[in-house]
Amino acid sequence: TQDSEIKIASVQALGSVGGPLSIPTILDAYHSEDWRIAAKAATALGEMGDNSVLDELAAGLTHRVWWVRRNSAAALAALPGGIAVLYRSLTSPDPFARDSAAEALDDCGELVKARTRHEQGEANRDELRLLRHMRGSEAVPA
Questions:
Q1: 5, 30, 54, 98: most buried by Cβ count inside 10 Å?
Q2: CA-to-CA dists, residue 75 to 58, 71, 84, 121, angstroms
Q3: 109-118: long-range contacts at Cβ-Cβ below 8 A with a sequence spacing of 24 or more?
Q4: Residue 56: how many CB atoms within 10 A of its CB?
């Protein structure tokens, strides 16, 4: 509907030019029943650069709609402290949260780093967990 399109455009604009006072409005949009608005709000939260929304975005990794999960994970990758949240999400009981986190970690270059560190014998527990997840096996020791 036209109302949804206006909300999406508004959230996008707030993410691009809004300041910290915009965060509550974007969070309201993030909790919208309309997944398109929620997905755009996730992206906007990542663009804001404020890590006060890490917990909200982490919860979004379990959203029922793939786009919201994907955009939440990408936003986490862009925020200070978000990479650690994504690594922690690899242990989530929710398989969709694990997959969204792994995809974002791959997109932001963490998978390449993990592979390189593993080849050098320097991979940490989180990196090994990511490699196992991406391989879909227990081939890499914990």
A1: 30
A2: 10, 6, 13, 30
A3: 110/83, 110/86
A4: 18
Token digits of residue 70: 């994907």
pLDDT in tens, 67-118: 999 999 999 999 999 999 999 999 999 999 999 999 999 999 999 999 999 9
CA distances from 107 to 75, 79, 119 (A): 11, 14, 20
Nearest to 82 by CA among 64, 104, 97: 104
Show the tokens assigned to 95. Answer: 């398989």
Calpha distance 15→75 (Å, rounded): 11
pTM exceeding 0.70: yes
Angle at 136 between CA 133 and CA 140, to 5 degrees: 70
